[in-house]
Amino acid sequence: MKILVAVKRVVDANVKVQSRSDGTGVDTVNLKMSMNPFDEIAVEEAVRLKESGIATEVVAVSAGVVQAQETLRTALAIGADRAILIESNEVLEPLAVAKLLKALVEKEQPHLVILGKQAIDDDSNQTGQMLAALANLPQATFASKLVIAGGKATVAREVDGGAETLSLMLPAVVTTDLRLNEPRYVTLPSIMKAKKKQLDTMKPADLGVDVSPRLKTLKVVPPVRRAQGMKVPDVKTLVEKLTIEAKVL
């Protein structure tokens, strides 16, 4: 059983980002970059399936700039067997990534594709669903538990009304939620071993995919800074400020 795991290189979750002065986007110069946290959960789950004897191979894939090799090396250090980088300097939108993954699914023929439910840089939450639609595969999103048995994937997920359990025939697409697992700490020996693992690179053209942007960003600006709060001595003063000054009552 082969598992394909998609990972994305994003600004580290602990870094505070700023918009560029010209408003064309987020300034990422000299910022720490890491693997998208939801994708890290996806890699961990795939590796656990391999360690339990269910999967035989875990392939990590990423699309983006050449520096994304560092992200793939992290996936290899966690336990992936090999990695593939689809190198592109274009701003890759969710649909473009989904098309690239579809082409790779057709080439690699995995039994399961695992992705993070969304990336923390754009929060689009679209790639997994688009991939499932393009590849005509069953899907389960926001997985909080995943069990593989008898050629099926049983996925528990949280929904607005409570909990839901889905049963999917393999091959299938699953996107991960935070509660699925806790990724392991990557040790130095694992990092050293990852440097010797296979990492292939290709271009979108090699997969026959056009990744030209379809969306245009008009302007990116930071959110308006919130006004400083104040303390009031009693409820009467609070009501007066809300009705007379703020005029919200």
TrEMBL record:
<dbReference type="GO" id="GO:0046395">
    <property type="term" value="P:carboxylic acid catabolic process"/>
</dbReference>
<dbReference type="InterPro" id="IPR014730">
    <property type="entry name" value="ETF_a/b_N"/>
</dbReference>
<dbReference type="InterPro" id="IPR012255">
    <property type="entry name" value="ETF_b"/>
</dbReference>
<comment type="function">
    <text>The electron transfer flavoprotein serves as a specific electron acceptor for other dehydrogenases. It transfers the electrons to the main respiratory chain via ETF-ubiquinone oxidoreductase (ETF dehydrogenase).</text>
</comment>
<comment type="similarity">
    <text>Belongs to the ETF beta-subunit/FixA family.</text>
</comment>
<comment type="subunit">
    <text>Heterodimer of an alpha and a beta subunit.</text>
</comment>
<dbReference type="GO" id="GO:0009055">
    <property type="term" value="F:electron transfer activity"/>
</dbReference>
<dbReference type="InterPro" id="IPR000049">
    <property type="entry name" value="ET-Flavoprotein_bsu_CS"/>
</dbReference>
<keyword id="KW-0249">Electron transport</keyword>
<feature type="domain" description="Electron transfer flavoprotein alpha/beta-subunit N-terminal">
    <location>
        <begin position="23"/>
        <end position="211"/>
    </location>
</feature>
<dbReference type="Pfam" id="PF01012">
    <property type="entry name" value="ETF"/>
</dbReference>
<protein>
    <recommendedName>
        <fullName>Electron transfer flavoprotein subunit beta</fullName>
    </recommendedName>
</protein>
<dbReference type="InterPro" id="IPR014729">
    <property type="entry name" value="Rossmann-like_a/b/a_fold"/>
</dbReference>
<dbReference type="InterPro" id="IPR033948">
    <property type="entry name" value="ETF_beta_N"/>
</dbReference>
<keyword id="KW-0813">Transport</keyword>
